[in-house]
Each structure stands twice: as C-alpha cells, then as structure tokens.
Amino acid sequence: MVCEEEMLIEKVVELYEQISRLESLKPCKNVDMLFTELVLTCIPPSPIDVTKQNKRVQEVRSHLIRLCGEAEGHLETHYSTILGSFDNPLDHLNIFPYHSNYLKLGLLEFTILSQHCTHDPTKIAFVGSGPLPLTSIVLASHHLPSTTFHNYDIDPFANSNATRLVSSDPDMSRRMVFHTTDILDVNNVLQEYEVVYLAALVGMDKEGKNRIIDHLAKNMAPGALLMLRSAHGARAFLYPVVDPCDLRGFEVLSVFHPMDEVINSVVIARKYPQPMPIHSLDQQPISSMILPNKCSEIPAFNPLNHANIIEELAIEEQLL
C-alpha cells in the first residue's frame, strides 16, 4: 500500500511540474491532456490522507488546487461563451464535456437535500456560481421547478456570461438571479435563504474556506441548510477538503464520498438554533464552538437506487 501511495504521489508531482510550466491554462490540446491525466490519476479510490504528507507534497497540493481552479475557470468561460452564441443556450448544455457529471452531482445533492428538507426550498443561494452555473441550472431544471436561485460571484464577467445563458428562457431567467459581490460583504440577506450552497473553489485554502464558513454561520438563518463540496482521498489534490470539525455553528448531517467520476464529496449541515452563550473560564462566549466529533460515511451512490442511499450520521454534540 505504501508503494502504491508513493507511486501516486510521484505521478501527481510529475503532472504538477508539467502543468506549472504551461504558458497558459486556457483550453487547448496540451492543457486538456494534462488535466485529464491528472483527474484520471486522482479518481480511483485511495486511502491516502493528503493532510498527513510532507511539506513538499503539501506545497505541491496547495499550488495544484490553485492551478486546477484557474484551469476550471478558463474552461467554464470558454464553454459559456460558446453556449452564449446560441439562440437557446440551455438546449445545448451537453456540449460541455462534464455536463453528465453535473447531472449526476445534481441528482445526488438533490437526493441528500430531500432527506433533510421537508419541502422544496423557496430560495437557494449558490456561492461561487461562475460563468457556467450548471449546478443551479440542473437543480432548477430537473429537481426544483419552483425554487428561485440567487447566484453569487465576485467576478462581473462571470455573471455577465451566466446571465446570457438563461436570458432567452422565460422561466429560468425569472428564477435565476445573479449578484456580483464578495459573499463576505453579504450579511442580513443571507437570512432569507433556506439553503446555501458553497462551491468547491470558494476559499482555496483552509483559512479562506473557514473564514467564509464562519461568516455563513454568523449570518444564515437558524435551521437553514449548508451544502458544501469537499474532496476525499487522492481527489484532495484537485479540490480543497472541508473538515466537518471546521463547521463551527453547524450540525453536520451527512457526508458522502462518491466512488465514480463525480469528483466532489458532498457535506450537508444545518445551522444550529442560536444557543444561550456559554462562557469559558476567561468569560469569552463559546456557544459557536459546538462541533461534531464523530462521522460515519455513507455507502457509494447508486443513481438507480437513489431514494434510500442517504443515512443520517451519528453526531455527538460536544462543547469544547
């Protein structure tokens, strides 16, 4: 097993070095080939814990996540621009190479959401929607036909591209709203959403991700649901990992690690009702420090039997 792990790391580092030497990460034959090879290297289930690797591997991983994020942004912009040239862009979404992955991920996330939400949410916020907001589009089109999606992105160009995709569809243009702002500048409005999605690449490192999660914990409505994307095993070389213990102020409801070509893990948590502040010895309130300390994982997702796949996690609430 150690040998397999060493070979995996060696391969990832080799690909990182090739990718980091590229002049541009915009879609082209060489870029597509290298990132495809990287994804195929990281997808197979692996017991590797990337957080326990040496400093060099940690640095490679940190840089690689940023390179993957930049390449993903270029890829989405490229296809959003192409789609925006059609009269009815939503009829041509399948030209995006990973469209089928988003359909599977959308079904998975809707199934998980349905286990913890007794009704279709009226309003959902998606943080980090980007130029090709496929999660919102898939959920709005296939699973939540009456829900309004408020998509947040810091990039005005991304929102301009995304708006163009839905503008010709009367229903979708009414239910897809776009906001150009940093989510850290959004406060009271977050109270309006029953569900908040946090995209995988919003907060590229642990500190950035935790800053956003803490902001959401402070401003979301009590009882509202937070859907996050994480990564597991070797897939953590591609995306940031969300540690359930970092979800201060939230009760973690379930964690799911896909075993197929859907790369992201899915975490769903519920904001705790505001508890009475409990003071520590130095008189500082620690009510936001309720953390889950035990998680049991959920079996592999089977889209043919999605109604019964989600199990509640055993969560012990603990005051630190």
UniProtKB/TrEMBL annotation:
The keyword ATP-binding does not apply. Keywords: S-adenosyl-L-methionine, Transferase. GO terms for biological process: nicotianamine biosynthetic process. InterPro entries: Nicotian_synth (IPR004298), SAM-dependent_MTases_sf (IPR029063). It comes from the Eukaryota. It holds the Pfam family NAS. Its EC number is 2.5.1.43. It catalyses: 3 S-adenosyl-L-methionine = nicotianamine + 3 S-methyl-5'-thioadenosine + 3 H(+). Signal peptide: none annotated. GO terms for molecular function: nicotianamine synthase activity. Synthesizes nicotianamine, a polyamine which serves as a sensor for the physiological iron status within the plant, and/or might be involved in the transport of iron. Belongs to the nicotianamine synthase (NAS)-like family. This is Nicotianamine synthase. The lineage of its organism: Eukaryota, Viridiplantae, Streptophyta, Embryophyta, Tracheophyta.
